[in-house]
Amino acid sequence: MNRPLRSLYRWTALTAALFIIACADRDAGGAQPAQSVVGTLSPVNTDGFRKALAPAAFTFPRDHGTHPEFKTEWWYFTGNLGTADGRRFGYQLTLFRVAVTPAPPASASAWATNQTYMAHFAVTDVAGDEFYYDERFARGALGLAGVRAAPFRAWLEDWRVSAATGAAVRGCDGCLNLRISAGNDAAAVALFLTSTKPAARHGDNGLSQKSATPGNASYYYSLTRLATEGTIEVDGQTHAVTGQSWFDHEWSTSALEDAQAGWDWFSLQLSGQAELMLFRLRARDPADADFVSGSYVAPDGRVSRLRPGDFAIEVLNSWTSPATGVAYPGQWRIRIPRRRLVLDVTPLIRRQELNSAFRYWEGAVSATGRHRERPISGAGYVELTGYH
Amino acid sequence: MILARVSMRNLLRHPWQSILSIVGIALGVAVVIAIDLTNESARRAFKLSNQMVAGQATHHIIGGPSGLDETLYRDLRVEHGIRGAWPVVEGRLRLPDHDGQRFTVIGVDPFAQTSHSAIHRSTRGLSPTELLSVHNAALLADDSARRLGLTIPGELRVHGAKGDHRLRVTATVSSDNALENQALRAVVITDISTAQVVTGNVGRLTRIDLELNDPATVTRVRGLLPPGAELAGSAARGNALQQMTRAFEVNLTALSLLALVVGMFLIYNTMTVSVLQRHRQIATLRTLGVGDRELFASVALEALTLGALGVVAGIGVGIVLSHQLLGLVAQTINDLYFRLDVKQVSVSAWSLAKGIALGIGATVVAALAPALEASRVPPQITYTRSGQESAARGSVGRLAWFAIVPCVAAAVLLLLPGGSLYAGFTGLFFAIFGFALLTPALLLLIVRLAHPWLARTLGLIGRMAARGVTESLSRTRVTIAALAVAVSATVGVGIMISSFRTTVEHWLVNYLRADLYVSASGSANGVDPGLIRRVSQLPGVKSITTARWTNLDGAAGRTQLFVLDAQSEAFENFQFKDGDAASAWPRFKDRDAVIVSEPYAYHHRRGVGDTVVLRTDRGAREFEVAGVFYDYGSDRGVVALHRDTYDRHWSDPAISSFAVYLDAGIDADDFAATLQDGVLDGTELTLRSNRQLRALSMDIFDRTFAITNVLRVLTVVIAVIGIFSALMSIQLERGREFAVLRANGFTPRQLWALVTTETGLLGLAAGVLALPLGLFLALALIFVINRRSFGWTMQVWLTPEHFVLGLVLAVAAGLLAGIYPALRLARTPPSFALRHE
Fold first, then answer.
1. Residue B74 within any structural domain of the chain
2. pTM higher than 0.90 for the full model?
3. Which residue of B has its CA nearest to A23?
């Protein structure tokens, strides 16, 4: 199962963001131009890059690393954490890679590269009703940014995720023990992550279709449950926290279709040790059908594919960002009739919009509902793009 | 009101006098404004080119001669999380398809965003991904692209390291700010990787710009630096660089002020003469009840009217003039200090305001005495010329005594050791002032001495001319002083320049002893050592000395290093001021000792046995000074060290130039032809014979003083205008006297002879007075001003031509000023002049 639009969106986000930085003197208080996902996608040239056409057997740790023959790739960490006295936090650290040309340039300089990186970092402080975010850019050269498969290391300058020493989970496919360190003057995290479940391959054994068009797909797997502990620093205060993280890794070379406006993506860790990943690519024309897909990861790690018709996402209300005036969905009801699962998904705080070079809403959420008539709860992250 | 009308009438009644004094003050103001605008434009161009890259950078990390290891930047960002850091690679390129024009390539990392320097802002229109995805993508200023006739996107061939590179100009930039556009004129912006390759600096950075806003981070960054790197505040560094040209600017400003002082004499003279002419009128006004204050005001108003008109004209002329001077100043800065691309005068209100204030101020000061004089005229009609003149003669002695004050002040300011350059110039102006006070006494003396001789050769006319000069002292003394000052300035500056020139010539003969010089100046990659090996194996080559010229930039400024791979005989080319070749050589060769040039020793107060601290690649280190040598190549000074010493402390194998010594009997020109065709063809290296290099050095020398010469000429022009106006007014005023002479049988021819003899005598007197003052000025310039500005010792070379020229100039000015009144008076029938009385 994949997030094809998301991949496209993010790819676009990177190139567009870089472009915007070059164009606009942002600190001068200039208003940011409104983004149109599709609009900025049109000039994308994907000639010469590999495409995700057929299922591929992932091999770990190799596939934790980069796939530079594909245009776009990201490593996505999100998590819901809390202190011993119940103060809740969310965090996000994402590293995006975009190749500007299929082949690296021939140059003697260590700075020369076709690989560019962007990183986003965010912390949600529920008690403080604060949302902190930051973004960075670097080239994938000279050691300024990059990803290494083993021992795992993904970094952009001093924001980094690296392999932590610790008991490797025996026989656990793709499992990782990680250390995350990122932050700025306002917020910072220092966390240890331990895989508790093997890598979940989405879609057709990791080939995640993003539209009906063949070839419009990505390779996509997740570590859906990483036990997490460490510290979060906000407002000059350091808090010891524990909780769960989620790791996505996805790579592709495809473009968003004109008919698609954006997407809504959900990752939820449920109280019964199951996880749910769902996405919906919204059709621009209300008459057209949205493209939906998802995965249900059972407590034992087995992945069931969710196809159109298997689930429904209903928007319960909406929220308009005071900063940008953009209206986003504000609450959802998810139904998976076959599993007799109904969940109401609610953001921990409303204001989790990243008004970065590329604007989107990505935030920590909680879920409550019923599973086979018994109460169930959960926590997770939702991403919303393409709203104006 | 009525007084104002009277004043206006006076100005209009003597239109020539008024116009000439306006011209005089206008030229003085024009020169001051032009020099100030020029200096200011150069300063702004410097600041701008500095800012263009630095942006809001507060600090820079600078390395040794070969820059910084690029991994330092990575470590700062990745290991230590220093965010406000921007890497820069800078170098010079030549455009072979565009007459070999030189451009600066600036390599930036567009991903290290949020720097708001013009360079980074200028990359708008070019996405960073484009900089990476297009091979050798480059960015030019709009103007540059137009000048080069490039269509965008287009290709630009550049010559840098290891030959030619093709840059792909994908976009152009332009700024709304004219100055910023100017700073981007000869700049090509590329990705840092491209800049590294084309400048031959793969693996290195020119510097890292930083924005560090709290002292703790500054301390932290300083602690992270490797030994060869230094953290410098950007303001301090810019200032230190700019300090290099300060002495040069001060010298120009002083010369321009001299022009204004001469202009001041003019105003003073005009007003004095005008008051003297109107004694009777003033006395009449007095009897009508006009008070002291009104009289004072009316004369001051007249002067101010002239001054204001002069200032207004001076602003216009000054702006025009500054465009002419800018090229000369920029040339000198480029020749002597650092590369500066300044093509445009930026007319700053501040410069103009200074010029206006100086012009008006000078007028007021100059008019003070005549205005006071007017207010002291008694109300009775007691006008007699003779009375005035005897009063003037009476004051001669007083003035001469009073001259002691400025002369003593001048002596103190000029002779006190350790005085500043400003003190030196103030002393110089005091000396000129003192001399002006002495002028009347000296003038009387000269005329007295000339009297018998004139009587013998010219008879009656000679005697009458001599008497005429003494009798019109009240009107002539200031004029003579002005002319003498202007002529002495030209004599003094002339002697200084030719002494300097001769000193440099002699020095070059000793210094440039090799037969041929091959240099890679302007080429990014220096000289290939393999090429030097090939040259050394050519038949006829006795030995080769290589040199490396480089700068060590630091917080305290720039130190120029001269690295010499010399044998002991080449070492003897140095002429030592302190220490000697024999004792310095072994220490220089083997024991890490350096020798420093005279200006360096002067500016840093170092001598033999002292140490200098240089930042090596392994940290700051002390080097013993084994000698101080004469060098006129750099006014900030040079530290010379042996290649072995250099290699022990710096990792920089580059060679800037080499000198070829030929076996006896080998013809240098023949060998040069062989060398050029056989080895140097197709390289970027320049071959020069000993003779050509000497000629080139002298060309640069002459270019340096081109602006000085222009100012010199302007000052003389102002003085000539002054003498012309003053003498003319005196002569015209004596219409009645001459009419009486005519009536008594003087022929027009005799009258003509009388007038021109008189004015010629005045000119001669000014010339004679100018000679000692000129000599004094030359000595002060050589021993005080030049030393305090640059630290150079020069021999005084006195040649008669400057003195002769000064005399001729003064006499010619005098004669010229006499011709018109003489002709007019001679033509006027005596009855007409008498009736007019």
1. yes
2. no
3. B124
